[in-house]
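Structure request: 4-hydroxyphenylpyruvate dioxygenase, Aspergillus leporis.
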Amino acid sequence: MFSNKLAISTISLGQHPSHSLDRKLTAAAQAGYAGVEIVYSDLQTYSQSHGLSIADGAVKIKATCDDNKLKILSLAPFENYEGDSSPLIDRLQRAAHWIETARILQSPYLQVPGQFKADAIGDEVVIVSELRQLADLGSSKQPLVSIAYEPMSWSTYYSTWESSLRLVEAVNRPNFGLCLDTFHLATKVWADPFAVSGKIPDADQSLQETLCRFARECPLEKVFYIQLSDGVKFDPPFSEAHPWYLEGEAPQFTWSKHARPFPLETHLGGYLPVTEIVRAWIGEKGFAGWTSLEIFDERMRQKNSRPESAALRGIDSWKKIQLELQTPTTKL
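Returned structure:
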């Protein structure tokens, strides 16, 4: 069994208005998680419902986590910062608020998904400069907040771990590293929602090659934490006729919002090669840091869904992964 501490994103415990943040934290603690990722919208809703500022709400949520012996892993997701067309001064002001909130929560990480707007600036000199300023805000005072940069499969310019690692090396700040997610890797190099098979041509070879490159080239100290989720296979394949289809939206983004169950929930349609990815990242590469479950199951938006049940689903999923990884490695 792996020694990685297990966390869960608060949004992955429920998305119905009745699923209050404090209830979700209690559910996570009772199920046995070591930590949580606090989603800003959950904190915002909690604060508003109690007539509190975000800062005061963060104080109360930190106390609730302490009472439940839960560590706060990250504040997420700080989206569309680098290369955005809006004035940098406005983005830095917003970043300062998020980082200060992370400090109140005593969260070691601010999660920053790769920019995904179509009109974003692609000039790497600009992007590196802006990300350095973000990292420097995080290290400007104690407690230090590190930036966990996440390549998403639909990110405009940095959608792979390889390109994002190049960015990490260019930013060159000790508090700037990677957050890696099984869903984003799988839906970039392996899965195809438009194919009957659910896979791109040569999917297994493509995945094996990127995992081998990861083993050779990615320094473990630049992987801050990893996230796990699965993806439901579209049957029939995804198309413009699908009720989730939105013109102009990346299909992987649509997929992510609606159909990311916990890893290995094959009974719910999960089919991504999560075990193979985790074997490479944790089993073979030896990543020993935090592992977090970040899933988006549209059923959790329903009133009859329960954070307590979601929390237990996640624990069962983590146990399944560990059991599968006890079996000998099989070639993809």
